[in-house]
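Standup notes, structure subgroup. Blocker cleared on the calcium ion input:
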Amino acid sequence: MRVLIVEDDKLLGDGLTRYLQQAGYVVDVSTSGTEADTLLGQEDYDLVILDIGLPGLDGFEVLRRMRRRKRYVPVLVLTARDTLEDRVRGLDLGADDYLVKPFALLELEARIRAVTRRGQTVNGTPLTYGALILDTGARRAWLEQKPLKLTAREWGVLEFLILRVGKMVNKDQIVAAVSQWDDEISHNAVEVYISRLRSKLEPAGIRIHAVRGFGYYLDKQGESTG
Ligand code: CA
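Run returned:
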């Protein structure tokens, strides 16, 4: 899962980044509202953690511009200004949840799970594909009822494919989904992740199809009917 943290307090931004990276998220950080707005217009994120008091555009303006774009992205607002007025204004603009600084990192992670689960799983149930179960909130996977170990990037590629069953995705889209913007992975790396995923999934009858020169897809046969 790809997260954009928008926070001008460097200490807090660095702390959040380290914590979320260890938890397996792909993290980009921006320290200004203007830069965040540009990134949000160019990149695809699964979640935005947004401070309100920012240089350039403030968090409210970043949020307003995000909601004018078509694509829905869950937003978790961080604010030191814990007045009722600020909260109401943020929710009116389409924030999904709030955290008032200072907050515990475990609390943050719980809120992240809650807001992303709303967006990514159907009725709060894990994603299933054939013998595979992905709990995107808890970031755990099972294959044939056994826990499946995946690296953060393998997870990112697999989640991206499963959320688009039946649709072709190309390598550029996969790169965008699993890279951090200062650390872009190559097409060769995508091939490596796909090949590792295949060796983990094929014994259970799950095939990642490739179409030469186009990309990859999971066919609809593995989709759960229940
Ligand atoms: Ca701030």
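Discussed briefly. The chain is about 40% helix and 20% strand.
Next: hand off to the docking folks.
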